[in-house]
Amino acid sequence: MIYETVIGLEVHLQLNTKTKAFCGCSTDFGKPPNSNVCPVCLGFPGSLPVYNRQALNSAIKLALAFNCRIQEHTKFDRKNYFYPDLPKNYQISQYDLPLSRNGYLDIFTNGSPKRIGITRIHLEEDAGKLIHEDAVSLVDFNRTGIPLMEIVSEPDLSHPQEAFDYLTNLKNIIEYLDISDCDMEKGSLRCDANISLRPAGVKELGVKTELKNMNSFKGVKDALTFEVERQTKILEAKETMVQETRLWDVEQGITVTMRTKEGAKDYRYFPDPDLTVFVIGKELIEPVKATLPELPYDKMQRLMKTYALTEYDAKILVASKKDAEFAEVCMQEYPGKDKKEIANWLIGPLMAEANLRKEQLHTLKLDRKELINLIGFVQRQEISHLSAKTVLTQMLDTGKSAQALIKEGNLEQISNTDALAQVIETVINENAKSVGDFKAGKVNALMYLVGQVMKKSSGKANPKVVGDLIKQRLS
Q: Which pLDDT value is given to residue 336?
């Protein structure tokens, strides 16, 4: 039997506010354990929460970016459960009246567009952190009360790769909005996945499994891939699927049972009596809407139109907001109307250098004008493209100018016909078979002869001039 995969994702996003959701404690990461705490976030009797205005504005901004309907009335609820890192024994969250509903995110997956529904975006606070050492567990409450948003997708994803593409696009938009650093290593962005299988053509959803403990987008993809195989084997063996929560074991590459899944009734939600109902009208939404930046898809379309870039090139350049800004300034400063050459260098050699150095385009120590100068040397055929890539590496290593490095390395391209004639004559005499192949009409033979000249000239010969000279010599 053929089974369809149904996936929904829950993304927990820490906001980059300076203070916590309901108190004035700092959100600085890496402080000594239990130093960023107060009676409010520790749940002392008589302490009263007040919601962070910056967090609310960030939530509205995200809801607008994901095309959600922001609800006029929203409230906070207490989600009750007992765990060592939850000092109040409840989490302030939202249940039946979340901030926003019914949005969507368009993604490109396997070369095709697909719209993924956003069920809801709601506000809540983070729990603390358990640190397990030998036979004891320690609790750090610094993270307790940091403002979170939970972004819940519709079960519209049908393949682990789609989940990966959805998360990549979602993270990209969040970074453009500048409301979170999205650092998964710090726990700023965490993802849980719900996955079930059902017979192809059946509308009713199968028994779902919730996956946790995935600390990278690749981890999400790998865990979902494993679950597809595990659940398929259970269904084909006609065994009973159990709704449960499972953990992803990175080292073994498997999921393991954590617990049977609780339902909403187990959390005994009820409205938080210390927090009033929020009324979110146009007077709150419009000022936030006015601050929305140009989002990745819109920027991609504009770059294609303004600079005649391909969709492929533009999509790569907008993957990072700051890289996109850097790239656009480069294209603006690049002389002439045709920006293809500078775009090729940005997404080719320069991005390769950034990846090698574990940096981004905008963090590389490179003067934009020097990059443009280097490309100019290539276009004027004063140095070869291969030599220019070597110079680029040296520019990043030393901070020297392109011109200085070209002179130091004696890399000027040889275009003088008299200087090349003797080398060409030697190559022709040493490669009689290739000469015969060329005369017989084999195009590749010319490329081979040009390559031999390039080799003997240590890559300094101008390949176009060499090709023309060989043709003249053998015509």
A: 85
- Please tell me whether residues 213 and 243 are part of one structural domain: yes
Considering the domain architecture, whether residues 52 and 90 belong to the same structural domain is answered as yes
Return mean pLDDT, the chain. Answer: 91
Which pLDDT band holds residue 311 (cuts at 50, 70, 90)?
A: confident
Q: Is the confidence at residue 458, as pLDDT, over 90? A: no
- Total count of domains within the chain: 3
> Where does a domain end: 350, 377, 408?
408
Q: What letter does residue 359 receive in the DSSP assignment?
A: -
Q: What are phi and psi of 132, to 5 degrees?
A: -95, 120
pTM over 0.90: no
* 302 and 193 part of one domain: no
Whether residues 198 and 272 fall in one domain: yes
| Relative orientation angle of helices 321-333 and 296-307, to the nearest 10 degrees | 10
State the pLDDT at residue 413: 65
User: How high is the pLDDT of residue 414?
Assistant: 67
Task: Answer whether residue 263 shows pLDDT above 80.
Answer: no
Co-location of 255 and 400 in the same domain: no
With contact defined as beta carbons under 8 Å apart, do 215 and 103 qualify? no
Q: Which domain holds residue 446?
A: 417-474
* Shared-domain flag, residues 376 and 307: yes
Residue 288 CB contacts under 8 Å (≥ 6 apart), including other chains = 57, 60, 61, 64
Same domain (yes/no): 338, 427:
no
Model pLDDT, residue 264: 66
**Domain containing 465 — which CATH number?**
1.10.10.410
- Shared-domain flag, residues 143 and 269: yes
117 touches 103 (CB < 8 A): yes
Question: Residue 21 carries which DSSP code?
Answer: S
- Rounded Cα distance between 277 and 233, Å, is 48
From the list 118, 123, 12, the residue with the least C-alpha distance to 65 is 118
pLDDT (tens digit per residue) in 392-403: 999 999 999 999
Q: How confident is the model at residue 461 (pLDDT cuts 50, 70, 90)?
A: confident
Instruction: Specify whether the CB–CB gap between 142 and 128 falls below 8 A.
Output: yes
Characterize 268-282 residue by residue with b for buried, 16 or more Cβ atoms within 10 angstroms of its Cβ, and e for exposed: ebeebeebeebebee
Phi, psi of 225 (to 5 degrees): -60, -45
In angstroms, the CA 62 to CA 289 distance is 10
